[in-house]
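Input record (one chain):
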Amino acid sequence: MFLTKDNLRLGLALGLLGPLLGLLAIYFIKFPSSAFSDFLDNFMHDNRMITSIGSLSLLANAILFTAYVNTSRDNTAKGIFIVTLIYGIGILVLKIIN
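The corresponding structure, as predicted from the sequence alone:
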């Protein structure tokens, strides 16, 4: 199975998908009655939501990172970590711009 490989590209791909899936999970759990576009608009313009939802969506990457580090697949974990840093910086920039 491809998820068992130790590959930097796999880590980058998983790192990109993790927070997006986390964001979708938060939407379906906490905001199912609102439209997804309204949810994203609120997320992009409300500093409290940027902090809380951004952090929770990055939690998906923390779980992935821990799983790959604990199974000694360090190159994949490195890719996840790189993308997590980029997402984190993006969240900080978004918070500062608002």
